[in-house]
Each structure stands twice: as structure tokens, then as C-alpha cells.
Amino acid sequence: MRHYKITSTESGYRLDHYLTHVKPDLTRHFIQNLIKGGAVFVNHKKILKTGHSLKEGDELIVIIPSLKEVGIVPENIPLTVLYEDKNLIVLNKPAGMVVHPTDHGAHVSGTLVNALMHHCKDLSGMNGEKRPGIVHRLDKDTSGIIIVAKNDDIHGNLAKQFEDRQVTKRYITLLKGHLTPEEGSVEAPLLKTHGEKNVRISAQKNAKYALTHYRVLRYVGVYSLVEVRIITGRTHQIRVHFASIGYSVCGDTQYGDSKTNENLKPLGLTRQFLHAAYLKITHPVTGKVLEITASLPEDLENVLKKLG
């Protein structure tokens, strides 16, 4: 159960928009279902309209349901565990694995969630029945570190760290061309145009602020091996930001350069060259800093070796 009180600056918000704003770890679809299902109260009255307008001083109560295993079948899929205790688990996700089943019923098998349901006895239910424990996501064809919460309190703490930008995330990517300057930033707002499959830079008011820092590790032939640190965690942020300045992620079939991708296929690059290599968080229980690393997977290492 979560409690909120509306301030003067929040007055006028739609109920679903407000909850999406204060609970970024929950999907809008999940929030709308909570409202329609009678789990949200304003001034102790059940509100079923997602577009209900909030006023200053309104008191909200949101009842987050416990995890339900409806539609999710535990599967004995091998997991590479980088860290685990009774509160959380950190995994090295392989490329090609979808993180969770989708709302429209796709990817109901073989996902990270299916594997987690088999591996873990308990998972947080804050992100809905299709996303148990999932605090943040990686694209299907991005490999690397992902953290999962085993209960709601841990999930809430970790989500707040992400929201407050207290988490350090670094990626390794291979970009088309020689990126210059060798160290810098890309700061450009991003807007989803068609669900989560198309993202572009936009000056529209509803575009979300996005900031990416980078440094070139070395030039590899006509390419750049780059370490990336994202301050915000927008959908497809790294891929869209670098494509926008003319240095697209190698192997990216959505935002990348088709000629570059074709040139790299004979070297074994069959997916985007993007790997979540480093994560630093504060453990929600112990207060200690956790630093997790994941080396480049074999498929990406082999590409670099062949490039020399």
C-alpha cells in the first residue's frame, strides 16, 4: 500500500498520469488496470476513472497487489548470476533473451521472467504479474547486467535510486566511424512515436530529457570502441543518441547504418554491439555500495579480434 498527498504543483494532474510520474517502475498499462480494478482511492473514495482530475490536498491510497503467477510458466533456463542474496539478484542477461512477457501476449516463453520464476522463490510484485521483480530493462539484443528485486520494499528502494539518478550504469558499444571528440556528452530529449519500437529526438513538450556521457576506449579499424554512461535511462537512449550524431551502434538494424551492418555480418556480428558492463548501486538493506561488472560476451569479443 502506498500513500500520496497532492501538492499545489501537482494539482490538475490526471490520476493515471500522476501515478505514472511518481511510480516510474510501474507501467502505465499496469497503473490503469489498478485504477479500473478498484485499487486506488482518493480521499478514501474508490476512483475507477483513469482520467480523474486531482486537486491540491487530495490524499491517495494505492493498493499494489501481490505477485500472481497467472500466464507465467516457470522455466528451467540457465541464468548467469553475478550476485545474489535474500533481497535481490543481479544477472548477466544474454543477447536474444527478452526480459519479460509483453502486455499483448507476445514472448510468453523463454523470457528472463520465466527463468526467474523457476530460480527464485519470491519476487517483487510491484511491476505487475508479467514483470515480477523487474526494476529496469535491457533490450532483447543488448547483453549484460540487470538487477531484480525479491520483494516490494527492495523494489521500491532500487526504483527510487534509479529515479534519483543515484545508480551508475556503463555500457560498452562499437560505433560506426571514429567518434570525435574522444570524450563528451549527448544531451537531447527523446520521444516515443510508436509504442516502444520507435524513438526519436524531439523538441516537443512531452519529450523526455536524456543525457549520455561517453569516452572512446580505442579506435578499431574504421570503428570506435566506446564506454557509455547513461544519466537517464530512456528507451533506446544510447542507440538513438549516437545515431543522431552520425555514429550509430554497429549491428543496430533499427537505428543503425545498413551498409555497416552488412560489412560486419561476415565477422559474426548478428546483433547490436551493446553490452551493459558495469552497475553501481547502494544495497537497500546493508547500505554498502555494490559494484558489479560483466565482461564482454564471446560473440562481441570475437568481432573485436577479427577487426584487429
Overall description:
This protein has 308 residues and is an alpha+beta fold. It has 3 domains: 2-62, Roll (Structural Genomics Hypothetical 15.5 Kd Protein In mrcA-pckA Intergenic Region, Chain A); 81-163, Pseudouridine synthase (2-Layer Sandwich), CATH 3.30.2350; 168-307, Pseudouridine synthase. The chain is 20% helix and 28% strand. It has helices at residues 15-22, 28-36, 112-119, 152-163, 237-244, 258-264, 298-307; strands spanning 2-5, 40-42, 45-46, 59-62, 81-84, 88-93, 143-149, 168-176, 183-187, 190-194, 198-201, 211-220, 223-230, 274-282, 289-293. Strand 10 (190-194) and strand 11 (198-201) form a beta hairpin. The N and C termini lie far apart (55 Å).
Helix percent reads 10-25%
CATH fold name of the largest domain, please?
Answer: Pseudouridine synthase
| General form | globular
Class by SSE composition: alpha+beta
Tell me the series of helices and strands, N- to C-terminal. Answer: EHHEEEEEHEHEEEEEEHHEEH
Text of the CATH class of the largest domain: Alpha Beta
Beta percentage is 25-35%
Low-pLDDT stretches: 66-70, 103-107
What gyration radius follows from the Cα positions, in whole Å?
20 Å
The quaternary organization reads as: single chain
Overall mean confidence score, pLDDT: 88
CATH architecture term of the largest domain: 2-Layer Sandwich
- DSSP E strands, number: 15
* Largest sheet descriptor: 9 strands, mixed
Query: Total number of helical segments?
Result: 7
CATH superfamily of the largest domain: Pseudouridine synthase
Please, how many domains?
Answer: 3
| Distance separating the two termini | 55 Å
